């Protein structure tokens, strides 16, 4: 996907004008947190499990050399070919060369954010391959020529009438009613069945790579990932090296956090563990399996102050709870990963120079950290990125000056109190009659959208001092 | 070329790590203890399993023995498809069932596109999640779970475990280091999607219905309680 992060503010403004999309997003922002709470409501040990999963994940990252090596060895013993890719282009090239080795024409794919990150589809299509996304959401946006707006529900931004029209335009099936979600799902099922049965190569992602036995965990509801992993003669698992967990029980403990946070279920319909190619007595399964492990700066993140971001399990809960994401939607971010997790990850996977708009797309409300099943301090990481942005002089000079001036003032309490002690009563006197200001110098970002309420008359500190004195006098 | 990239990436990861010995790493992991497990929906394992299967949009029937299971399969097939056709894996337990008694004609092998119903004999059932566990091989071809319209699963009461941790314990007992199955599948409902405006629709790509037949002594009151727990 083409990186368009620098246009965040313009795209956000546009997004706020699309009233039908705003309605969809408001619905997600309201319904998804309620559903998540209901799903976790019965789970009395959420905090303990979250701590445990975090500890295991931190332990894994602290010793990633050990566990990645173990996974690689087990996966090779299971009959896989394991490839390392330094960046997205390298992963795309490895996948293409496997396809070409097998003279593959038709490729089917399960949902994979990693291959969105590397823009694998474009690479394979340019080389003449037919690539079909099989997750319904991904299929819809592929047909529409769009990119995912959400890491779990990639087509959640599309309305049902839009999807209906898309299918009528793209599927040559003659006149038909096509009313309602069941009709649309049934049509996609029919269209995709042939692709499943006739594909030369299946490509899927991985939710966890289990070091102790070399299995790869695949979590889906539709079963499309499993069809991709079982029917074509060649299977390629495209994933990243931070998906490694030590044991099978660690993968399923993580699953207990992942699924309620992502889809508000206790478990998805299909949770599968794949070890490699078909065994000698097996009636089915791929003849050859490959695992491509993408780095793409993750080893740099591992060696940085942002290591905690590698604990992310891609559940999307932070998106559903973020007022900025719900306000402007995933496409405004201009990157594969939107929302709070994307605002941290994108600058780390690209560069802060390209993507410094994203860490600013945050109100520091802290909801993302509250619900994050991996316990990642997302607001802290976003703040640190903004600090780096300032240190690297990427933010406008006026912002940096303003922040520096405020920091200086805040570290001189006497002056701070004197100045605010003069300013607040002045504002009170000026605006007392109307109760609010329509415009204020240096505060147009606020007053161009809403009135600024007139202060009550005295600063907090002035009132505190008075109250304190009264207490002393009693 | 590939080896040098591997060395380069592994080198970076090693430098970012602590350089702990394998023994040290292993003992540290052990010291983290087991993951907390959720309380079951009921004190009874079978009730919890049944309730969670129902919550997962499956249907459940409890039967006392294999003969009754055959009859349950026959009734289900007749009700759903007015037919007694079925695809089943080459599982010795399935082969030994008295199919003729109920007039069912299983085809033992792999399901193909267009097959209406597939039957699997689960290795395990997990009460915590209402899942059944199968693994790929002759006894349970992957297509029998995935390509059919209706997926029927037989699971024995004795094969129910409470948590996913205990499921792994049993799986590890079954499979040896040299004998790892290609795929281990936790199946927890019919294929579903909510990708269109968040509306839940069954039968996205795989089975539209998922029917679990539990063999063992489960009382009528347990079944009733499980239905209540599932809000039915």
**How many alpha or pi helices of chain A?**
23
Q: Specify the CATH homologous superfamily of the largest domain in chain A.
A: NagB/RpiA/CoA transferase-like
Query: What is the total number of structural domains of chain A?
Result: 3
The computed structural class of chain B is: alpha/beta
Instruction: Report the portion of residues of chain A in β strands.
Output: 5-15%
- The largest sheet of chain B has its strands arranged as 1-12-7-4-2-3
CATH topology label of chain B: Rossmann fold
Helix proportion of chain B: 25-40%
Key descriptive features of the protein:
heterodimer, A: 474 residues, alpha/beta, Rossmann fold, 3 domains, six-stranded parallel sheet, four-stranded mixed sheet, 23 helices, 12 strands, 53% helix, 11% strand, B: 232 residues, 9 helices, 37% helix
Describe this protein's structure:
The complex is a heterodimer of chains A (474) and B (232). Chain A is an alpha/beta fold and 474 residues long. A six-stranded parallel β-sheet of chain A has the order 1-10-7-4-2-3, sandwiched between helices. In chain A, α2 crosses α12. The termini of chain A are far apart. The model of chain A has no long low-confidence stretch (mean pLDDT 95). Chain B is built from nine helices and twelve strands. In chain B, a hairpin with a 4-residue loop joins β5 and β6. The model of chain B has no long low-confidence stretch (mean pLDDT 95). The interface between A and B is large, with 101 and 79 residues. β9 of chain A pairs antiparallel with β9 of chain B.
């Amino acid at each position: 996907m083409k990186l368009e992060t620098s246009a965040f503010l313009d795209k956000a403004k546009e997004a706020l004008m699309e009233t039908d999309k705003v309605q969809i997003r408001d619905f997600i922002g309201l319904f998804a947190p309620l559903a998540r709470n209901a799903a976790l409501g019965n789970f009395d040990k959420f905090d303990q499990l979250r701590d445990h999963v975090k500890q295991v994940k931190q332990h894994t990252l602290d010793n990633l050399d050990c566990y990645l090596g173990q996974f690689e060895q087990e996966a090779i013993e299971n009959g896989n070919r394991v490839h390392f890719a330094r960046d997205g282009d390298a992963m795309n090239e490895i996948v293409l060369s496997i396809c070409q080795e097998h003279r593959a024409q038709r490729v089917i794919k399960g949902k994979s954010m990693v291959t969105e990150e590397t823009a694998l589809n474009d690479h394979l299509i340019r080389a003449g391959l037919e690539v079909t996304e099989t997750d319904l959401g991904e299929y819809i946006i592929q047909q529409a020529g769009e990119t995912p707006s959400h890491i779990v529900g990639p087509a959640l931004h599309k309305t049902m009438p839009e999807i209906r029209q898309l299918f009528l335009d793209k599927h040559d099936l003659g006149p038909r009613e096509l009313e309602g979600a069941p009709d649309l799902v049934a049509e996609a099922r029919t269209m995709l069945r042939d692709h499943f049965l006739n594909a030369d190569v299946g490509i899927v992602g991985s939710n966890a790579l289990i070091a102790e036995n070399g299995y790869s965990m695949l979590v889906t509801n539709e079963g499309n990932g499993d069809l991709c992993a079982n029917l074509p003669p060649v299977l390629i698992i495209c994933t990243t090296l931070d998906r490694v967990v030590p044991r099978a029980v660690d993968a399923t403990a993580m699953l207990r956090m992942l699924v309620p946070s992502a889809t508000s279920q206790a478990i998805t319909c299909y949770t599968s563990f794949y070890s490699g190619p078909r065994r000698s007595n097996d009636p089915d399964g791929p003849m050859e399996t490959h695992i491509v492990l993408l780095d793409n700066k993750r080893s740099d993140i591992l060696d940085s102050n942002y290591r905690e971001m590698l604990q992310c399990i891609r559940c999307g809960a932070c998106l559903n709870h973020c007022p900025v994401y719900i306000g402007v939607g995933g496409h405004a971010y201009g990157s594969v990963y939107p929302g709070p997790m994307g605002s941290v990850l994108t600058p780390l996977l690209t560069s802060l120079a390209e993507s410094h708009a994203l860490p600013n797309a945050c109100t520091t409300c802290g909801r993302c950290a509250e619900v994050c099943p991996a316990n990642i301090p997302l607001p802290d990481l976003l703040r640190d990125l903004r600090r780096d942005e300032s240190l690297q002089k990427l933010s406008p000079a006026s912002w940096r000056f303003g922040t520096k001036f405020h920091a200086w003032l805040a570290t001189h309490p006497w002056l701070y109190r004197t100045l605010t002690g003069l300013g607040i009563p002045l504002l009170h006197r000026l605006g007392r009659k109307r109760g609010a200001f329509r415009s204020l110098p240096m505060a147009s970002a606020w007053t161009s959208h809403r009135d600024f309420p007139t202060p009550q008359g005295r600063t907090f500190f002035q009132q505190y001092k008075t109250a304190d004195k009264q207490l002393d006098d009693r | 070329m590939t080896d040098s990239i591997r060395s380069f990436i592994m080198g970076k990861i090693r430098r970012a790590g602590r350089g702990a010995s394998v023994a040290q790493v292993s003992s540290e992991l052990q010291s983290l203890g087991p993951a907390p497990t959720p309380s079951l929906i009921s004190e009874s394992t079978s009730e919890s399993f049944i309730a969670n299967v129902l919550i997962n949009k499956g249907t459940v029937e409890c039967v006392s023995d294999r003969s009754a299971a055959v009859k349950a399969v026959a009734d289900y097939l007749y009700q759903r498809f007015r037919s007694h056709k079925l695809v089943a894996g080459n599982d010795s337990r399935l082969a030994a069932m008295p199919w003729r008694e109920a007039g069912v004609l299983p085809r033992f092998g792999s399901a193909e596109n267009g097959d209406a119903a597939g039957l699997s004999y689960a290795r395990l059932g997990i009460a915590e999640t209402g899942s059944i566990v199968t693994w790929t091989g002759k006894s349970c071809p992957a297509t029998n779970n995935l390509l059919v319209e209706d997926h029927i699963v037989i699971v024995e009461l004795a094969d129910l475990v409470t948590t996913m941790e205990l499921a792994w314990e049993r799986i590890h007992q079954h499979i040896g280091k040299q004998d790892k199955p290609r795929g281990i599948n936790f199946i927890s409902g019919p294929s579903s999607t909510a990708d269109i405006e968040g509306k839940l629709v069954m039968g996205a790509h795989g089975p539209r219905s998922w029917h679990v037949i539990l063999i063992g002594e489960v009382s009528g009151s347990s079944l009733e309680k499980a239905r209540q727990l599932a809000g039915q």
